[in-house]
Amino acid sequence: MAEQKKPQGPFYKRKGFIPLLLFLFLLTLLFMSTRLTGRPPQIDSITPRIGYPGDIMVVQGKFFGDTRNGGEVVISGYSPISSEYLEWTAERISLRIPEDVHSGLVYVQTKKGRSKETLFTNREQVPVVLSAPGAPGQPYINELGEESG
Fold first, then answer.
1. Residue 101 lies in a domain
2. Residue 106: beta bridge partners?
3. Eight-class DSSP state of 8
C-alpha cells in the first residue's frame, strides 16, 4: 500500500521560509544602501590631455557631487588650491592647471571614493626635437631612414 502524503500547509508556514525571507530582506537592504550612499567618481575624459600650466583643464565624468564639498582633483600627486577650481558639478570639473604641476596621473577624490586615473602631460616637459646640435660640436641625428638589409 502506498504512503499517503501529508498535506502541506500554507507556504509561509513551510520550513525554510523565514530564513529565505530574512535573506531577501537583507539583500534588498544592501542594494538600497549602495544606492543611497553613492558611487565613487568616474572620469570619462580630461581636456587637454597635454597642456601648459595656467591652461584650463576640464574633467568630464560622473558622480563628482553637485558641489566640491571637500573633493579634489589630484594631478601627479599635486592638489590644486581652492582658487584654482572654476566649476564643480556632478559631471564636470573645470580648474586652472597649477604652475608647479608635473606630468602624471589625474584622479578625482571625493567622500564617496577615488576615481580611476588618467594620464596628463605637462607640455613644458615634452622633449623638443632639435634640427641642429644643441651645442656647437655636439653630435646629432639629422634624419632616420628605413632599415636596409
1. yes
2. 75, 118
3. P
d(CA 61, CA 70): 18
| Whether the model pTM is above 0.85 | no
Domain annotation covers residue 135: no
CA angle 34, 39, 41 (to 5 degrees): 175
> Does the pLDDT of residue 3 top 70, yes or no?
no
CATH classification of the domain holding 86: 2.60.40.10
CA distance 75 to 103: 8
Model confidence pLDDT, tens digit, residues 81-124? 999 999 999 999 999 999 999 999 999 999 999 999 999 999 99
Using the Cα atoms of residue 32, residue 34, residue 38 and residue 41 in order, give the sign of their dihedral: negative
Contacts of 116 (CB under 8 A, 6+ apart): 42, 43, 107
Q: What is the CA radius of gyration of the chain?
A: 29
